[in-house]
Amino acid sequence: MRARRRPEALFAGALLAGVVLAALAPVVGNGFVNYDDDLYVTENQEVRGGPTMEGARWAFTTGRAANWHPLTWLSHMLDWRLFGESPAGHHGTSLLLHVAGTLAFFGFLRGSTGSVFRSALAAALFGVHPLHVESVAWIAERKDVLSGLLAMLALLAYLRYARSPRLSAYLATAAALALGLLAKPMLVTLPFLLLLADAWPLERRLPIRRLLAEKVPLLALAAAAGAATLLAQRSGLATGSIEQYPLGLRAANAVASYADYLARTVWPRGLAVFYPYPADGVPAWKVAASALLLAAATAAAIRLRRRFPYLLFGWLWYVVSLLPVIGLVQVGEQASADRYTYLPLAGIFVAAAWGGRDLAAWAGKKFGTERGGVRLAAAAAAAVVVVLALLARGQAAVWKDSFTLFEHALAVTRGNHVAHLNLGLAHAAAGRRDEAIRQLEEAVRLRPDHPIARSALGEQLGLAGRRDEAIRQLEEAVRLDGRRLEARAALALNLALAGRIEESLPHFEEAARRRPGDAGLLYNWGTALAAAGRYAEAARRFEETLRLNPRHARARRNLGAALVRLGEREAGEREIRAAREMEGTGPR
User: Fold this and answer.
1) Phi, psi for 331 (deg, rounded to 5)
2) What is the percent of the chain where pLDDT is above 70?
3) DSSP notation for 79-90
4) Has residue 408 been placed in a domain?
5) Which of 400, 476, 462 shows the shortest CA–CA distance to 433?
6) How far is CA 253 from CA 194, 197, 241, 282, 457, in A?
7) What is the C-alpha to C-alpha distance for residues 62 and 39, in angstroms, rounded to an integer?
8) How many structural domains is the chain composed of?
9) Per-position DSSP letters for 402-427, written without gaps between them
10) Does residue 521 contact residue 537 with C-beta atoms inside 8 Å?
11) Which of 357, 377, 402 is the last residue before a domain boundary?
């Protein structure tokens, strides 16, 4: 039977890969976006340095992006070495990882159940569903497709172990899990998912104590990765406070999100890169209805577990794998996110594929033609996959660039301060300052307590010459969060340009203390010190600037002027002559 079905499986796998590529290939033509792609790739000097020993050390020790995922960092480094600033290569890598993960999912289902059609259908839903486009099309979300592939490889290794319990297969499972956790710690639930697979589809008839004991080393790996992630998120200011997101609001949103994700799965329209928390909280009726749905689905899956074990497997896979990102521990500002469904929906797709086949067989039998019912179900399944693939192509186009992405988010959501913020930043980068200010003012109106929005607005107002307004916004940004260096540096500069030199100096000093390698910041600080008549200190700042950037002509000229003021005329004039020579080759 296995040999006879192998050609079918190979054909199904090839067809599956072709469908996923056809649906999501447009992502390769997209660019970078200004939502974390800069943080992860385009403005990340460690990543741009490529894969080196120093880069690997940084990847394993950094908490940048408020997360701990060293393997993801290393994948971005390799991409930068291979493709540089061309986004097509980065997108292509994510797409290929997604295709490979889809095929591995198919391989696990087919190997554990023997069903080619149902396995291919579940994998096709995984591969082309529009909710999964975000994970593939967003370069900064590489961690989803990379960890997803490793999760599926862990399932394949565990399948080998279940069929023939050898140490090599168990170690392969543990290695795939460990690597997956290094890509994205959301895989902390995978040991529990393997326990679900023990019941179905693997049907391992072993004492529960033994099955649990097998998972202890895997749980230890998950616990270690979870602890490292929590530390990174807290140090990176990513976890929301109880004041901002009370426990009651989190619990209500978590219950509602379980139902929201299912609704988007069935009707994947109006998808957005960011879903804000409702301004007035989650309606009580929605929480009650969602809780009722969850309870009813869980009760039905338990009651039908003997006859239809795939229902309990699929439902609990969905519920359990969503737990780390359901919002009880609030990370970021979003109420929910499509990318969080990347692994959890695999369970729903399994339940749909197996349940749809059984339902069609039952209906056909009832009406006297079981084979006809199955054929009709196959045609319906193919139609669903085609429709989802077309919707996925449309969703991929939403990620074309920052303008398209956030204009779409504003069209399908309400009160979306993040969309206004990032759209404003995109306009600012394009030199459209008036539109940038308009968008940033709306972001501040929606979230007056948002330090990044106020900081960005303050910077743009300052560039527009609206100095007093800029200072007010930047002072509020610093008050809200004094650890945001961009706001403090911009406040210092605007105070200095407004003639409030003495007020600016403490802000320059604090910003430079926390970011000592910023030549531009040191130069501005030196200029303010010189304006205050503190020439010796100014000279030291200009010298530090030149140490970081020896071709900084203005810093050399100002150093010369400061030295002249200090009575070191010969040295000062030498620096001024050197500055003139630099300026003769063009501005620096």
Assistant:
1) -120, 120
2) 96
3) HHHHHTT-HHHH
4) no
5) 462
6) 28, 29, 15, 6, 30
7) 13
8) 3
9) HHHHHHHHHHH-SS-HHHHHHHHHHH
10) no
11) 402
At 85-134, the pLDDT tens digits run: 999 999 999 999 999 999 999 999 999 999 999 999 999 999 999 999 99
User: Residue 49 is part of which domain span?
Assistant: 2-402
Note whether 428 and 436 are within 8 A (CB): yes
Evaluate the CA torsion angle 557, 563, 566, 567 in order and state its sign. Answer: negative
Q: 427: domain CATH number?
A: 1.25.40.10
The single residue listed with the structure tokens 């290929």 is: 96
Dihedral of the alpha carbons of 124, 128, 129, 135, in degrees to the nearest 10: 120
Amino acid at 377: A
DSSP helix/strand/coil, 343:
coil
Cβ proximity of 333 and 418 under 8 Å? yes
At residue 239, φ and ψ (nearest 5 deg) are: -80, 130
- Domain shared by 452 and 495, yes or no: yes
Q: Please report whether residue 547 resides in a domain.
A: yes
Which amino acid does the sequence have at 14? A
Q: Are residues 441 and 465 in the same domain?
A: yes
Structure tokens, 412: 């399908």
- Mean pLDDT for 149-153 is 98
392 and 465 in a single domain? The answer is no
Collapsing DSSP states into helix, strand and coil, what is residue 200? coil
Secondary structure (3-state) at 92: helix
Of 402, 432, 453, at which residue does a domain stop? 402
578 contacts 561 by C-beta, under 8 angstroms: no
Residues 429 and 391 in one domain: no
Question: With contact defined as beta carbons under 8 Å apart, do 124 and 19 qualify?
Answer: yes
Q: HSE (CB half, 13 Å, CA atoms) of 322?
A: 28
Going from the C-alpha of 459 to that of each of 39, 44, 403, the distances in angstroms are 19, 21, 20
* Through-space distance between the first and last CA atoms of the chain, rounded to whole angstroms: 73
> Distance from CA of residue 473 to its chain's centroid?
29
pLDDT digits (tens, 9 = 90+) for 371-395: 777 788 889 999 999 999 999 999 9
Instruction: State how far the alpha carbon of 168 is from the alpha carbons of 160, 162, 172, 470, in Å.
Output: 10, 12, 6, 62
What DSSP state is assigned to residue 484? Answer: -
- In terms of Cβ atoms closer than 10 Å to its own Cβ (0-12, 13-18, 19+), residue 188 is buried
